[in-house]
Amino acid sequence: MFSLNGVSYSFQKTVLDNISLEISGGQFTGIVGPNGSGKTTLLRLLSGFYRAPQGHVLLNGQNLASLRPRVRARQIAVVTQINILNPQFTVREMLSLGRAPYHRWFWQRQTAAEKALLEKITADLRLAELLPRRIKTLSGGEMQRTVIARALAQDTLVLLLDEPVNHLDIHHQLEILSYLKNLTAQGRTIIAVLHDLRLARRFCDSLLVLNNGQVITGLPEEHLRSGLLARVFELPENSEFLA
Ligand SMILES: Nc1ncnc2c1ncn2[C@@H]1O[C@H](COP(=O)(O)OP(=O)(O)OP(=O)(O)O)[C@@H](O)[C@H]1O
To answer: φ, ψ for residue 214 (rounded to 5)?
Structure first.
């Protein structure tokens, strides 16, 4: 699915230093690491938002940098921390925006298949009552569910999410993460930055652990057994936050 070959990325200092790794398709991969370790930077490289000045980011063997944004948006949907939303849009309009990569012009009529897709997403994320509401009137959690729904409306094989459950209460956190996990059973690839290590361990098939410019890949249990998570987060090995 994704291959990174010798990727480095720097701002004033080097954030990612000569990273080579593979991310498998059809899995839930978590990106974890301390604040400032480069999680968002890595996600932006995977989305094509940043171009690696050194090395290559490949999606199914294709260099991401060579894909036109519209073509990329049919393969990768992104939920960022700061989603630039027009506060005047309704939830219904936001969902429709997810179809933009497939339309020639802005408010092109939706096909029956597109309407059915949006209805299913609306039902799955329990958004029906919110459809007529303007974005500016939503709570943080409602907004987050709307943004995730818009990404799902892109109907891509890959979904990249930056802290997708941050604004959600524990019930909605579990609901959204279970939903995302179930999408992998349909062959979709989910890659998400997560801060809660217990949730990451419970839902992720593999974890990318970022620290000091390096990325260590592996199963959550491997990282736990080796003590890597405890070391990186400066926690005792038997910490309840890893359990
Ligand atoms: N546009 C930028 N200009 C300068 N420095 C930046 C920029 N974006 C990120 N950085 C720096 O790069 C480092 C990695 O940032 P990044 O946002 O990728 O980390 P993160 O692991 O996602 O952090 P957090 O957990 O706090 O969200 C940080 O030190 C950050 O200050």
So the answer is: -110, 160
